[in-house]
Amino acid sequence: MTAEEFERIIEEDGFVEWEEVYPGTYYGTLKSEIDRIWKAGKHVVFDVDVVGGLNLKEYFGKNALAVFIKVGSLDELRKRLTSRNTDSPESIEERLKKAAEEYRRSGYFDMEILNDSLEDACAKAEKAVLEFIDKKVVNSVWR
């Protein structure tokens, strides 16, 4: 959608969360999409940055599991980004700067998962999500 359409939907309170990442470039999650997925009997999994994650946690409260995925250190992140050969050195520095800021907010998440092995991190994330869903389904029966 255009920036103007996005801004109109912001005014109409149509997003669960949104952010203007760069001037005139928006990202967000429509409330209507969440409703559509829930009506289909499914769960929603978000892959957002720290700001989006914290906004979602604030919006949904205990009905959301906020997971912070991290690497062991910023040096390790630098090595990974450099080895990909997809970003310029300037872009890598920007990402590292953002990562340092995000790490300071990790304590606001429900849990942290160390991504030292992609397979292990995925298994931990899947286990945490399934346990959370199971707990929420059981708890909702008692409400």
SS strand fraction: 15-25%
Q: Shape, please?
A: globular
Indicate the CATH architecture of the largest domain. Answer: 3-Layer(aba) Sandwich
Q: What's the alpha carbon Rg, rounded to whole Å?
A: 17 Å
Largest sheet: 2 strands, antiparallel
Q: Compute the number of strand runs.
A: 4
Order of helices and strands: HEEHHEHHEH
**First-residue to last-residue Cα separation:** 39 Å
Tally of separate domains: 2
- CATH topology group of the largest domain: Rossmann fold
CATH class of the largest domain: Alpha Beta
Question: Which structural class matches the secondary elements?
Answer: alpha+beta
**Can you give the helix content as a percent range?**
55-70%
> Averaging pLDDT over every residue, what do you get?
89
Question: Describe it for me?
Answer:
The protein has 143 residues and is of the alpha+beta class. It has two domains: 1-42, Guanylate Kinase phosphate binding domain (2-Layer Sandwich); 45-141, 3-Layer(aba) Sandwich (Rossmann fold), CATH 3.40.50. The chain is built from six helices and four strands, in the order αββααβααβα. It has a two-stranded antiparallel sheet with strand order 1-2. A two-stranded parallel ribbon has the order 3-4.
